[in-house]
Amino acid sequence: MKTQRNEKQLVITLIMFMTIVGLSSCRPKSATSAFSEDAAVKTYVAPGNYDEFYNFVSGGFSGQLAIYGLPSGRLLKVIPVFSVNAENGWGFSEETKPMLHTSFGEVPWDDSHHPNLSMTNGEYDGRWVFINANNTPRIARIDLKSFKTVEMLELPNSAGNHPSAYVTENTEYIVAGTRFSVPPDYIDGDVPITSYKENFKGHISFISVDPLTGEMKLSFQLAVPGFNYDLSHPGKGKSHGWFFFTCYNSEQAHTHLEVNASQNDKDFVLAVNWKKIEEHLKAGKGEKVKCRYAHNMYDEKMHVATSKIFEETTVLNIEDVKDCLYYIPCPKSPHGIDIDPSGEYIVASGKLATVIPVFSFDKIQKAIQEKSFEGETEGIHIINYEAALYGEVQNPGLGALHTEFDEKGNAYTSFFVSSEIVKWNIKDLQVLDRIPSTYSIGHLSVMGGDTKKPYGKYLVAYNKITKDRFLPTGPELAQCAQLIDISGDKMKLLLDFPTIGEPHYAVALPANMIKDNQIQFYNLAENKHPYVARSQKEAKVVREGNVVHVYMTAIRSHMAPDNIEGIMLGDTVYFHLTNIEQEWDIPHGFAVKGNTNAELLVMPGETQTLKWVPGRTGIFPFYCTDFCSALHQEMQGYARVSAQGNKVPLSYTLDDKTTDK
Ligand code: K7E
Ligand code: CUA
Fold first, then answer.
1. From the CB of residue 432, how many other CB atoms can be counted at a distance below 10 Å?
2. Is the pLDDT at 3 greater than 70, yes or no?
3. pLDDT of residue 2
4. How far, in Å, from the CA of 33 to the mean position of ligand 1?
5. CA-angle at 495, arms to 491 and 500, nearest 5°
6. How far is CA 68 from CA 166, 396, 429, 514, in A?
7. Cα separation, 550 vs 566, whole angstroms
8. pLDDT higher than threshold 60 for residue 134
9. Which end of the chain lies in a sparser environment, N or C, as judged by fewer CB atoms within 10 Å?
10. C-alpha distances in Å from residue 616, one per residue of 55, 599, 638
C-alpha cells in the first residue's frame, strides 16, 4: 500500500515535471518553420467568399458559444448562453432575464464545455446545438436558424455538470452526469463532508428532446455510486442504446483529490444500457422524488422567455436497473471517452496512464453474457478488464485527454502533458504520426469527428496556454485554436487563431447545411409581444400607478416617441422598443443615460424591453447605439424626470406633435 502510494506520487511528480519541461520544449523551433505558402493558400478565404464550415466553440469560463468560420478562423459571432451579455442585453432585458432563472434565483454566469449538435441517424442534422453549464447544472439549446439560445433546463440532484451535453444517435436524449457527487436534493444535504461514502451520490440525467420542436424534458435520473463522473459519449450504430461514462475517484476521497483520488491503479468506465432502462421505466420502476429545477423557454414569436419551476423527477436506483449498469476497469484517472464511427471501439483516455485502452463493444456484450466479472462495487458488476479490452495503444504520449475520428479509420488523441496530437489506426492500434500543439492541448475536434460519418479534412486543436504565440497582452493571454490539415498521411499545421474564454470541446458543421436557412428578420405581423408597437401610430406612453410603459418604435432614423415628460422620481419605466424594419441586418440599439442596466439590441421585427428606475431628476437622453444609417446620430430622444410634487403631466412627442395624456 505504502509503495503503491509512493509510486503514485512519483508518477504525479514526473508529470508535473514534464508539464514544466513541455512548456518550454514543445514549441516549434521557429514560428515560420511550421508555416508555408501551402498553408496560406489552404486557409485563405478571399474577401467576400464564405468559409467551408461553421465551427461552434465552447467559451469555457466565458459561459458562451463562439462561432468561427473554418478554414479561415474568422470569428463570426458570440452567442450569449449562460452569461449575461451587455452588448445585446442578454440577461438584462426583461424578455431574456427569465432565461437565466434557476431554482437558486437568477444566475448570470456559468462555465460551458461541450457543445453537441443534434443528430439524425448518427449524423448532424443542422437543427440545434446543446451545451452544458458546469457550475449550476443546466443544459441550453441553441436554434441554428436564429443562432439564439431558446431553451434552458436546470438539472436537480447534480453538481459539476461536466459529462454533458451529449446527444444520442437520433437526438432521443441529451445525457448529463455529475463530476461532483453530492447529497441529492431529495435528502437533507446538511451532512458532514466526512460522511461522503454514505451520503454523496452521482446522478445521471436523461433529457428527452421533442423531435419536432426540440423542447427538452427531464425524463429520468439514475442514482449511481458517489464517484466523479467526468466525460461521456453515446454508443452509435451497433452500440446505439448504450451510454459510456468515465469516472475517477473510485476511492471516494473528499480531500486532496490530486493524491487521494489517484490511489487505485484503475478507475472505471460506466456502461449504461438506456434502451433496457426504458423498459424498466415502462414496467413502473423508479420513484418520484421531490426536487426543484427551472425550465426556461424563449418564444421567438412573443420575443419573451418564460421560466417554470418543476417540483419532482423520477429517480432509478441501482437495484431497479442492475442489469443495465456495468463498470469496466480503466487505467489511471480517465478523462475523455470517445466512440469510433462504427460504434465498436470505445476509447478511454487515462490522464495518468501510459497506454490508451480501447474497449470492444462486442467483447463487452460477450463478457456480460458470460458473466466475466471481476467483482462488484456498490451493487454494480465490474466486467473483467481483459474480457472487455480490444487492445491498448502503447506509448502514445503523456496525459491523454480526448480522441476524435476521421473517415479513414484513424483516431486522433490529444495529450495535455506532452503537448501533442497523436494519430493512430483504430484496427491495429499503431501510432502513425504525431504533431506538437502550442502548448497544452485540451480537446480536439475533427470535422464530424463524433458522428457515424466524419467529414475529416481538418482537425482543430484547442489549447490552454499560448505563451509567446501571439502579441502579448498583459498577464492574461488569449487561448489558442490550431487548424491542422489531416487530409494526407502526415498532419500539417495550417493556422493559429485566438479564441474567446477557454475553449473546451467544439463541433463543426458544413456551411451548406444551414447557411441558407437563416432567419433574416422577424415578421412584424407575427410579433405577439404584449407591448409591441407595429407602427409609429401605435407608439404611446401609458402610466399605471408608478409604472410607466413606453411603447416605442425604431426605424431609420427615428425613435417614436422621442420626447417624454411627466416621469416622476419613484417611477419604474419600461422602454418596450419594437424595431419595425423588415430588412436583414438592420438592428437598432437603445440606451438611456445613467441606467444601471445594459443596452438593448433589437432585431428587425422584434420587441425588447429595458427597465429604468431613474435615481435623480433632470433630462436624460436616450439614443440608438447601432450605427444604422447616415442619420443614425439623429436617432435620439429625451426623457424628463421630475420630483414627485412637480405635477408635470405625462406627455410625449410623435411626429413633432405633443400628445398629452
Ligand atoms: Cu477535457 Cu471540460 Cu471536456 Cu476541457 S474538458 S479539456
Ligand atoms: Cu438606429 Cu442607429
1. 15
2. no
3. 38
4. 30
5. 120
6. 21, 30, 33, 14
7. 12
8. yes
9. N
10. 47, 20, 15
CB of 624 within 6 A of ligand 2: the answer is: yes
Query: Which residue in 412, 268, 401, 393 sits closest to 340, CA to CA?
Result: 412
How many angstroms is it from 607 CA to the middle of ligand 2? Answer: 15
Instruction: Kindly give the distance from the C-alpha atom of residue 589 to the centroid of ligand 1, in angstroms, as a whole number.
Output: 36
User: Torsions phi, psi of 635, nearest 5?
Assistant: -80, 90
Pocket test for ligand 1, best of 443, 464, 480, 499 (most atoms within 8 A of CB): 443
Phi/psi at 519 (5° precision): -70, 130
DSSP structure class, residue 399: S
In angstroms, what is the span from residue 299 Cα to ligand 1's centroid? 32
How crowded is residue 353: how many other Cβ atoms within 10 Å of its Cβ? 24
Tens digits of residue pLDDT in 375-384? 999 999 999 9
Q: Which three cell numbers stand for residue 311?
A: 417540483
pLDDT digits (tens, 9 = 90+) for 322-338: 999 999 999 988 999 99
Distance CA 367, CA 545 (A): 72
Ligand 1 atom closest to 335 (CA): 1
pLDDT grade, residue 27 (50/70/90)?
very low
Say how far apart CA 113 and CA 649 lie, in whole Å. 53
Compute the distance from residue 4 Cα to the ligand 2 centre, in Å: 68
Residue 628 CB–ligand 2 contact under 6 Å = yes
600 lines ligand 2 (CB under 6 A): no
Q: How far is the CA of 443 from the centre of ligand 1 (A)?
A: 6
Say if residue 596's pLDDT is above 70.
yes
With 60 as the cut, is the pLDDT of residue 34 above it?
no
Describe the strand order of the beta sheet including 389-394 as a list of residue ranges. Answer: 334-339, 345-350, 355-360, 389-394
Which atom of ligand 1 is closest in space to residue 401's alpha carbon? 1
Atom of ligand 1 nearest to the CA of 443: 6
Question: Exposed (0-12), middle (13-18) or buried (19+): which is 13, by Cβ within 10 Å?
Answer: exposed
Residue-level pLDDT at 5:
43
Torsional class of 407: left (φ above 0), alpha (ψ -120 to 50), beta (otherwise): alpha
Angle at 140 between CA 137 and CA 145, to 5 degrees: 175
